[in-house]
Structures are given as C-alpha cells and as structure tokens.
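Hi Prof. W.,

I finally got the Elongator complex protein 5 prediction working! I wasn't sure whether to trim anything, so I left the full sequence exactly as given:
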Amino acid sequence: PTSCPATGSPCGSASSKDSVEWEGRSLLKALVKKSWEQVHVLGCEVSEEEFREGFDSSINSRLVYHDLFRDPLSWSKPGKALPGGPLEALRALDKRTGSGPATIALDSLSWLLHHLPCPILCQTLHALSRQDSCPGDTLPGEQVRVLGLLHEELHGPGPLGALSSLAQTEVTLSGTMGQASAHILYRRPRQRPTLQTQWFSILPDFSLELQVEPLLESQPPSDLHTPSVDPTTHLTFNLHLSKKEREAKDSLTLPFQFSSEKQQALLRPGLGQATSHIFYEPDAYDDLDQEDPDDDLDV
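And this is what came out:
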C-alpha cells in the first residue's frame, strides 16, 4: 500500500485504536491535517492549546474546537455549555458542520464511552456519519467524515465490537523495534473486508511518512576462536572402553538373555519332577462360536 486512510470513507467513519505503548493522538492529528475541508474537533482529553500545537495557521484556521476538556459539566460557567452535556455536544456537531463537506474528530471515543451509554453513543455516531443516506442519495456537499480515537485497553469486547461495527475503516496501532505500524481494516458495502499493514512515522509537523517494513536484526556471528566444550566431560558413565573392558562387557550375560542351555533346562522337566496335563471335554450346553479363533486348538 502507498497511502494511509486520511479521513475514512465519504459517508462513514474511521476509528483509530491505540494502546499505552503506542499512542494514537498523533495519528489523529495527522489525519486531521490531511483533511482539506473544515474540521470540527470534540476535545475531551486535552486542551485546545495542546491539540492545536504543531499545526500551522492554515490548518488552525479551518479547525473548529468544541471544548469539553475544561468544563464538561458547565460547573465553572453555568449556562455557557450545552444543557445536554456530552451527548448534546455530540449531536450538535451534525448541525454545525453546515452544508459543505466536513470532518468530525472525536478525541476521544473512550472518554465518551465513560460518560454515555454504549447504545446511545453508537446511535449518535451512526447519525453523524449519515450512513442511512449512503451511498446513493448523498449529495457531494453533504459528505461528513467521522474520526474517532479509542483507547483499546480501557474497554471490554462488547463496546469494542459495537464501535468496530460502525467504522468503515479501522486502524489498530502497534509496532516493533521502535517503529510504528498500522493494521488497517477496510469495510465496504457488499464487499469482503480487507486488511493491510502499513509502517509509518509521524513528523514534528504531523505529516505522515510511509516506510518499508523493518528487517529483523541479524544475530551476531559467533566467535570462531571460542574453545569448544567437550560434551562428555561431566557424564556419569564412560563412553570410551578399553579392549579388556569391552571383552568383559561382551562376555557378560544379562538377566533377560537366555542361552540355549538355559532354555532347554527350563523347557525339559528334570528327573523326579511331575508332569501335568489339561483335559477338556465340552458338554451339550457349551456355546460354540463359529468365529472363535480358539476353537481349532487341540488342548
């Protein structure tokens, strides 16, 4: 692949899942930078100054920041925030995007999940992405793209699965050897999901730089002058026998070995030993089995 998903599908949503080791806010800001339309950011975890840091004036001029970080419940300035709290702020984004194409960035979905029930959040996200009108009757000027940052380690499989089903592009961050990678899952209507892996790095100005897959570090060559260790040094038995020891070993009769003389002595009764015989006469009530393999034995 030669590109990374910028803002998801024209009428859908894209989610970025990060972890403690690989943070995803930098990728979210990189995707915001690649959006050339107006961007509405619902900031819940960082201040507006911190989110705008690193962007130039051209990006900040088309970025509208809706602050839920400083006063999410309108305690310090009553009447200034939306009366409905985070839910009303999320629903109001659909009205504030206007008639032109726009991108909505949610920083983050994890914060919203901790303050809103999962079913209500999923219904609101579904309405924001306007999937009900896709793909036939959506006008080009009504395209809305939704980006969401999700801290995967904070949630169980239920909420993760519900939010994943809404996203048409799902990016999971990981990496190795200090280099980040994005596992990108594409979901398209009436098509099979496709999975790609893209290695990347984010520059200080939040530009994406795609990279090739890193090679595994080769093992250092072993020292040819290292003295070899004899594996037979600490054995509890001797592998090397002298000629006399080998002759004594070969002449020794083990308990489970039977010579011909010993076999004859065991099979032939000695003088004075009584012999015994077994006689069997079947009666009329014996059950004779025609398939019994022992019937032909002369006992």
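The first strand starts at residue 13 and ends at 18. Does that look reasonable to you?

Thanks,
D.
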